[in-house]
Amino acid sequence: MKYNIALLPGDGIGPEVVDATVKVLKALEKKTDIEFNFKTYMIGDAEKKRSGTALPQATIDGVKEADACLFACVGETAKETILPLRQKFNLYANLRPAKAYPGVSALKPETDLMIVRENTEDLYKMIGDRQPRSAFNVRVITYEASERIVRYAFEYAKANGKTKVTSVHKANVLDYTDGLYLEASRAVAKEYPEIQYQELIVDAAGMLLVMKPELFQVVVTTNMFGDILSDVTAGLVGGLGMAPSGNVGDNMCIFEPVHGSAPDIAGKGIANPAACMLSAAMMLDWLKEEKAASMIEEAVVKVLKEGKVKTPDLGGKNKTTEFADAVVKAL
Fold this sequence. Notes:
Layout: E1 2-10, H1 14-31, E2 35-40, H2 45-51, H3 57-65, E3 68-73, H4 82-88, E4 93-99, E5 112-118, E6 128-131, E7 134-137, H5 143-159, E8 164-169, H6 177-189, E9 196-201, H7 202-211, E10 218-221, H8 223-236, E11 244-248, E12 253-257, H9 274-286, H10 290-306, H11 320-330
Parallel strand pairs: 1-2, 1-3, 3-12, 5-10, 8-9, 8-10
Antiparallel strand pairs: 4-5, 4-11, 6-7, 11-12
Helix pairs in contact: 1-9, 1-11, 5-6, 7-8, 9-10, 10-11
């Protein structure tokens, strides 16, 4: 099977981790019947400085035409790049796994859960106003988007052998918006009697995710709560450097490591590409190439477990390219 993959390296360490990941994907071609056609498109701070726009039309068109997209990171232009792409292509589900890997220092090594975050509305609709001494942002929640994201969470649980879905809200205070979200959540939950359904107020959810992450399997919530809680759970398993993610819709996807552009180490060749590689594994899983996805994840895990090749953030002295070579060898 041949896939057209749009690459959006972006800023800072983005090109380095994408190059390392492409090296692994090219090695995967030799082990499977998969072929990749990679096309690179411009995005981010540097592109805005060069052309005046952080998200050129050519990039939008390239993402639209591709079978899947791998995005790395941008600097200060996230609001002008990844947010519009999520909304433009209706990538309504943000997938944020939190999983502890061997060889990576973790506060809670027993953590293994998935946060399913609504990705198109809430405060991220960017509706609001600013006056000299006052400001407001409008929180938009719809029944349609709430129902859709909760259904995605239950379908994910069903497909991955999970037995529990936790719906996180703040309906005790945000009675209009989260009240509507909960109505949709409860309606969907009734369609899946074989899966345990739990509701938690976001305050309690935050505390329990830190204290007892093993109680959670699949967490579904609205956009901003999911944005915050997913970084909390990343902190349990070694930080954002090891955190992959996906933005998916019914027919399109953009997968990305969660870490930022890390300008302090950009160009030094020491960035950890593991999160980008794991994001590529998630991308393959979305493309229904489950075996290939497992091969990449298992190769990354093998390198981490052996501990012979580690980038500085993992306590080693190896280069990005050396980590990539080790993963290729592990394949």
